[in-house]
Each structure stands twice: as structure tokens, then as C-alpha cells.
Fold these 3 entries.
Entry 1:
Amino acid sequence: ELLATADRGLGVGSATGVVPDELARAASLAEQGTFLAEDPYAEFADGLRARVDRARRDVLRALARHHEAAGDVIGARAWASRLAEAEPDDLRAQRELARLVEAEDRPR
């Protein structure tokens, strides 16, 4: 369900672009955690686990970009923060969060 919702939200195979409501729904589904977390050594699940993790990252990044494009720097920072927290080794996510925090602190 997460993968299908993420695809709809990201506009995969669609000319309409991102669908924010579907992205938010996918982000909510992703909060359930890592796919098959109760069996981390299940090699048969590695491919699907990687797809789910990638979808979660893509959804959070798309939500941050959508909010920023709409002028909602605070919302963008919140989504970027969730991504950076979930992916502490993702330097791109860390830089994006730092940029948004800096933008939020600038006087308007």
C-alpha cells in the first residue's frame, strides 16, 4: 500500500505531477517502520525493504519541496527534519535541512 500511495503522490506515470494529499498519506504509512523489521535477516525481503526505504525518502523529500514551493518554509523544514532524522548519513538531506532552517530564520 505504501509503494502504490507513494507512486500516486509522486506522480509516477502521471502528467499531473505530485499529489500532496497522497504524499502525506504515504508519509503516514511509512511511519509504521521498516518493512519486515521483526525479521531483519530475511534476505528474501531485502529488495522490497530497499524499495520501501527509498519510497519513504522520496516522499519526505517531495513533501519538503512542495511546501517550500508553496512558500511554507516552516512546513518544508518540518518534512526535511523528518528526512534528516530518519537518514542521518544522508548529507543531501542534512544540507537541505540546514538551508531551510537558515531560510526560516531570515526576516521576511
Note: Residues 26 and 51 are 13 Å apart (CA to CA).
Entry 2:
Amino acid sequence: DPSIPEKLLQSIQDRLLYYRDLGIQEVYSKKGEAVASKSKSKETLEGIRADIGECTRCKLHLKRTHIVFGEGNPKAELMFVGEGPGHDEDVTGRPFVGRAGQLLTKIIEAMKLKRQDVYIANIVKCLRYNALVQLGDGSWERIGRLVRSRYSGEVMSVDSDGRIVPKRVVGWHTSPLAGRQVFRLTYRSAKNAGASRVGIQLTGDHPVLTEKGYVPVEQLTWA
């Protein structure tokens, strides 16, 4: 439709590409239904969580351990929403429990509140490898692209005191080994098998996500 502004078309295209990356194959809408259902809806968070169940609606379920739905006061006046769960959240099924979560807890407590007084959730409920990482210059990039390009600049990280600070990436395979064995891990599901097959190098104690959950590399069965 030539009457649709170019910026709106670009926004729609970006949104559809985002859904495609999530594994969603169909997007549809029924005119008028969304507004009508919103005003009459009696849905509760408990009911929505029960309806989701062990959701398999998109491809993200293939790589997750637990759905990270959300927690806190469902009637809270203040809500914190993250982009997506990380390793600690995927293992526990709870939002913001890693270092970033510890920082969030300190922020909430500084506001004279407790975690149970607010509601905490993520936009995406399952761990995904294309999560965004903030770089030292304030821009954002997907972690998969950083790995493929062997990014060597700065990324924003959380230090032992819970402060967000820039830290330089010293190398994707050169962290201190301390006597640990290094393994090369290749995914059977990777596209373009052969010379261009996707592979990474990890120390044996590094956890990787399998169909049975997170398992240290050294405990995997090797073919």
C-alpha cells in the first residue's frame, strides 16, 4: 500500500524479521478483537502461566531448561522488564538471579522496597543465544555476532560489588586455563556442515545446554 509511510513499513519489516528469528511462522490479527478483549479481560498471571505450560510454540524451547515467566507481586505498581533470561535464570526458572539480578535487588532495596513488592519479568521467557550485549561505547550487539567476529573491544559487565563497569574482552579462547583441558565443541544441528561447520572451544568445566539441561563439556559423550 503506497499510502503507508516508509518508516512504518520499515518498523513492520523489522518486527516480522524479529518474529522469524524467534521461530514464529505465522502472525495474524483480527480487527477490533484486541481492543475489545483487553477491556473485558479477566486474565490473571497465574492463568496465563498455566496456559503457557511447557510452551513449545517457538524454536526457543529447544535450547532452554526452564521457562522464566516472572515473579513478585502481580498487583505491583512497579514492574521491571528485562530483555531475556541468561544462564542462571534458565537453570533456576527465576528472573534476574545472576549478577545483574543481584544489582537489581540492591536497586530495589535502595528504593525502600523488596523484590516481593515489585514484579520482575523478561520480554522473552526462554534463553536464547542471540541475546543483546551492551558494548563499551553504549551500543548493543547480539552475542552470536560477537563470537563469530572474535570481538576484542569492551563490554559492559557487573563487577563483584554489583556495579556496571566496562571490561575488555581478552580473547574468546585465551582465558586462564589453570590446568584445565580445552575441548572443541561442534553442533550436529549447525547448518553448512563440513569446512564451515560451527564450532567453539571451551574448557572442560564450562556448562553447555543439552537436551538434558546444562552439562559440563567434559561430561559429554563424544562421538
Note: Residues 6-22 form the longest helix (17 residues).
Entry 3:
Amino acid sequence: MRRCSRLVSMISWSLFLLAAMVLSPVFVQPAEAAGPVRGEQAPGFILSDLTGGQYKLPDNGRGKILIFHFWGSTCGYCREEIRILRLLHQENRKDLLPLSINVGETPLVVKKFIDKLEPGYPVLLDSNSAVAKQYGILGIPVTFLVDREGIIRFRIFGEINEKDLRKLLNVMLARK
């Protein structure tokens, strides 16, 4: 009986460690990739869009709620997330500016992917991943919600869904 309980204890401990290893990337961000956190000013940056125009933040986003959506063409969730951001932008055009920031891909790859989606808001190119590093991005997708004053209010690791994103945005939109 003692041997059986020790075996159960070992199995339980092993399952705990396995769960901790699997879930830790979701809950723990490595120190070297910390980037800005909730309540801090969003770091400024300059990136080009697919037409060669430049977006300088915070200047181009003043007075609007910003959504920085870091993504890549190999991301399974990103196609749906871009659709969600397009819809939210259409509904809140004067108050909301989504920016889908492609991480590490060439303009040709991005254009081929994005042309099918027609986002209707800026898609920016971070081909050398400099802004992704500045924001502590290790994997995609990652989404930041930035208020009208340029303060990071939410940071979402992984997939975003429309219902939860709407809840967060409603809180931010209510604060004028």
C-alpha cells in the first residue's frame, strides 16, 4: 500500500511539473523579453506600411485608442484576429486605430497574405523585428491595447477573441 501511494504521489508531482512547463509561457514572461507592462507609456516607434507610408507613434495615434497586434503569416489565429480588428475599426473609426504589426517577414510575403483579408486599417512592417524586441515579443500573436494618452492598459498573449476584446475596448471607450 505504501508503494502504491508513493507511486501516485510521484505521478501527481510529474503531472504538476508537466502542467507548469506547458502553461508557464502563458503566465510567465522571461525577464529578457519583459518589454513594457500595463500602466507604462507605450514606447514610440516608426514603421512603414505596405504602400511605403510611415507611421510614427505616438504622433499618428494621438487621441485614439490603439491596438498593436503583433502577427505573422504562419500564425493560425491571426487571420481571424485581423477580421475582428477590421470589424471593430469599422464600428469605431473615429476612436480606434488598430495597427497589425508583422514581425520579421518580407513585404512580399505580408502583401500576399494581407491582400486576401483587406483589413481597411494600417498593416505595418517590422521586417527586422526591432519593434517586436522593444515590446518584448517572443511569440505571436501578442496584442497591446493603449489608451488615448498612450498608456498600455492591456497586454494579451496568444489568441484574441471578439467577445473579450469588445469587453476590454468598451471599458476604454467609456473613458473619454
Note: The helical segments are 2-27, 78-91, 107-114, 130-134, 162-174.
